[in-house]
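Hello, quick one for you while I still have it in my head. Could you read through the record and tell me how the tokens relate to the sequence? No rush at all, and the record is pasted right below.
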Amino acid sequence: MRKPVAQQGVGLGEKHLSTVRVSLIASVAALGGFLFGFDTAVINGAIGALEKNFTAHAAAVGLSVSSALLGAAAGAVLAGRLADRHGRTRTMLATSLLFVASAAGSGAAVSPWDFSAWRVLGGVAIGAASVVVPTYIAEIAPAHLRGRLGSLQQLAIVLGIFVALLGDYAIAVSAGSAASPFWFGASAWRWMFWSAIPPALLYGVGALLIPESPRYLVARGRLREALVVLRGFIGEAAQARLLDIQRTLSSEHRPRLADLRGRFGLLPIVWIGIGLSAFQQLVGINVIFYYSSVLWQAVGFSERSSLVITVITGVTNIVTTLVAIATVDRIGRKPLLVAGSIGMALTLGTMAAVFGTAGVDASGSPVLEGAASLIALLSANLYVFCFGASWGPVTWVLLGEMFENRIRALALSIAAAAQWLANFLVSATFPALKMAGLGIAYGLYTAAAAASLVFVIAFIPETKGKELEEM
């Protein structure tokens, strides 16, 4: 029986060094995920100040928060083509420049309209990162590490979310509130956005230092360069892996949308990727990270307490992602998704019941008293735990590995665009749902979690331990 290519001719010392090297390179690429998380969550602490500064009503606030997500859908579609034409690392570099421009412009905005425009630009960067990072990591990682390294994308996202929320809290507390003046007389909420500039520049530097994906290099006919990169990852097994990659990239044309067409408009595996992406968002996870500080204020917590709760939720998300990284290559992708769907349905159902039966004050906001507040807090954090240990990281792992080499970047871009459209739908409708009743909002997310369980059982393949060339 033939040994896996990654193990042929590789000594223990060489294998350890290559593992360390590929892990470091994947970590640099995952900085795109950090910016993805940071940029989507940084608005959390600024929402109240934006309402005051721009005297905006609920619909305008919903547009400001969700405008980045429309840009993300466009960025996801564009990134697949850019990554196939110009390379994974060049796309990362372009993405970092977009992050810098968006952070600078969002912080300097003078109206909700130019603010939304800058957020759309940042969304393009977020969407591009959501495609190129998992594609690149999947393409450089050996099969026995791919689940853990693929999970770095989600770990970076939740770290970005946590750092953004912690930064929002620190800036708001130092200034007195998000709307108060901070350094050089600029409002604190503006500095929340400007704080994204340093990590965005660092990501650009990192993109210049890491090697190009060997699978992209083979697709472009740059076989010698691909062999050098592969030797750095898997040593003497590089030549055999190069032949495997050439076999799976034997098509004479560059990937195009026609390659994704199937019996029902798209190939079944592409539809599965779209469904996986959409369910990750339809369960309402980003309501927690975009609106949580406003949400907890609505049920009686102060601005400072709400921001503290949001930071604690961010820590919970990080810890659970580490759990997923430790288990995804042992337990497998599908069992984690099944367990996550069950846990999310139960915790979201509890939140729907708590908020649906809560009293309301004169403004129509729910009032949680006694044990109800504690139950809501525990349920919210248990929900984040269930998501963070399953659907958060595993979705990105599967999207990076479930498509064959020839169509990976393009198919992933379609799936990621669906994810951002679903994210937009959830985020844009939440302000109105909140006014109609939080019990209704969380009831809808509960239904999505239950449906995700059926979807996983029926359609998701197990990819644990398989090389990309076996897909």
Notes: The longest strand covers residues 359-360. The domain at 12-210+251-461 is CATH 1.20.1250.20 (Growth Hormone; Chain: A;).
